[in-house]
Every structure is written in C-alpha cells, then in structure tokens.
Request: fold
Amino acid sequence: MNEVKKVVLAYSGGLDTSVIVRWLIETYRCEVVCFAADIGQKEELSGLREKAINTGASKIYIDDLQEEFARDFVFPALRANAIYEGTYLLGTSLARPLIAKRQLEIARQEGADAVCHGATGKGNDQVRFELTYIALDPAIRIISAWKDEHWTFDSRASMIDYAEKHRIPIPLTREKPYSSDRNLLHISHEGGILEDPWVEPKEDMYVLTASPESAPDKATYVEIGFERGNPVSVDGAAMTPARLLDHMNEVAGENGIGRVDMVENRFVGMKSRGVYETPGGTVLWAAHRAVESITMDREVMIMRDSVIPKYAQLVYNGFWYAPEMKALQGFIDSTQENVTGTARLKLYKGNCIVVGRKSPFSLYSEDFATFEKDKVYDQKDATGFIRLNALRLRIQALLNAGRK
Reply:
C-alpha cells in the first residue's frame, strides 16, 4: 500500500462518512482531516465538529458556502431551466462540484496526500466528486472508500453494525434506514422501503414540505423579482441568493410544494428511485419561466429549450467543470440579458400557479394580441402566410394522390 500521511475527507456526518473516518485511520494509518460544506443543512450540522473529532479526525473544517452555492451553482442552473428527465431539479448534483472544489483547496492548504469521499460505486456522486478532482487537480490521489481494495463492508447494514460496535453515532436506524442529502435547494431521500418503487413514502420521512392535505386552506400569493435571469427579490424585498432561496423554501414548504417521487436513470446505467423535496426551487423555476415568457424571443427560446436536456445531463453526470459545460453556460447566459421583471404566483396545497407577469423588457403587446378591434394587424395577411407554409404539405398530398 502506497503510504498516505494525510487525507481530507468530504464529511457529512452520515452513516458512510462517519464510518470512513475510523476506517481510514485503521487502514491507512494516516491523519484524517474532515471537511463539511455548510450549504444549508441547518440542524444537521449540529454537533458535527465534536462527532468528527471523537471519531478520530485530527481537525474539521466547516465552511459556510451557502451564498456561493446559491449564486454560482443553483442560479446558473435556474437560468438554464435545468431539469433532469423532466422532474429532478438537480439539488444534489449541483452541490457536489462545489464541495469537491473546496475540498481540494483545503487539501492544498493542509499539505494532504489525498482526498476521500464516501459515495458508493453504484451511484452518481462518485462520478461527480472524482471528475471534479481530476478536472481541478489531476495529480491528487483519490481514495474512493467503497471501491477501495481494503473496504470490507458490503451493505449499509454491515456499516450500522460497525458503527454500533465502535459506538459511532449515526443519523439513521434500522427502522428508518433512509439515506438523505440536504442543502439550500432540496433534500433527497433514498434507500430503505423506497427501494420498492411501488411503496408510497411514509409521511414522517418528509422534512421541508407539509403534506398538501395539511397545508393551509387559504392560498399564499408571492411576487418574485428577476434581473438578467436571477431572482433578486421577494414581495419587493431585495435578498441575497442564499437568503432568497431559504425564504422561498419556508414559504413554499408550508404550502406543500416541491415533492417529487421518481425513478431516474443513473449515469452508471441502473435505474434508481429517489424522493425529493425542492419547495423553493420549484417556485423559482416556475417564476423564471413566467418572466421569460414575456421577455424572450420565440426562436431564442426554442434554441435554449433544445439544450436543457443536455445541460441537465452534464450537471447530473458530474461534468460541471468540463469545457462543453462552460460553452453551454455562456450561451444560456446570453439568452438571459432581458429576463428582468416580476412573476406573481399563487401557492395552494401543493400547487404552484403563475397568475401574473410583468417586465420593462416585455415583448407582449396587447395592441397586437387583443381579440377586439385593432389598427396594427391585418388578419388577411395570414392567408398568404398559411399558403406558403402549407406549400410543401400540398405538394406531398398531390404526389400521394397521384400514386393512389
């Protein structure tokens, strides 16, 4: 085994990384420095410092990256209206490249030989972490615990046994063995009974959202202001990116908005069932679309929409720092120059309904769109427009008739 003196571990305090701290020390006889990115986990960060040190880490960094996460990762994806397989707003996918980037910075600062993550060999996070490591520091040694030749655990149950044996506190139980990942954009739930795609999740699993049945009986109205595709205010009050996202999570979550239950295609090839809560993000995506609807040229919108699946796939698969991602983001941002305005939404029992939109750059003209009498549009012009667009269809129909 090549000697490792110091390793920086991406640490969440969950089952995997809690066990990995002890495993690294026993296996590599090395110093372990933990790093936890504060990207909106809230109470999940409580006691993390003491837990890491008590488990054997020599030091732990807990860095507040909430504003950077919202500004430089969530909002660029929002400007792209990125959504994976028509449903998933990429909460975990967007967080991993930021965590890995900061982890590398700490490794250089600490003079560490290696970095380590706790993602399994079946999932997507292993790819997101390691592609970022390689893109930003190709010389760094990567210890991927679940793929390491010295790793002896074969299931979460075996890791729970190990944690109980060594009195390592873990945030799940055999009765509720869900794997969760929380940040400012969402919380994800996997594992346990969720591995059966026919079984409905239990209500006590949800964290950020009220059930639609128990949400308020009165609708909540909210106005979200945008500048160049980025949300900047709620109900007229300016907010930083992280504060705005956090506030919208509260408002939307209370109204039961943002629950998603899906079976997705992982990058490694298998299908996986995940349950997500993305309350604030769901409302922001709808509001962004609403402002775009009156400010974006039709053909530009068609071009932008055509690359949404590719953008989402790149994020989901871990290519945040790839050259094609940089080029694609440049195009996306060029489409957002006039996406400035306000969207008004009605939130009610799990429903997010756009009820108004306005912009100083609006392309909507009531003079042209009205069904009443107007002086700017000659409806007879549409006759020639239709004839020209139908010409190829007419020729095809005549040929088909001739063959018959």
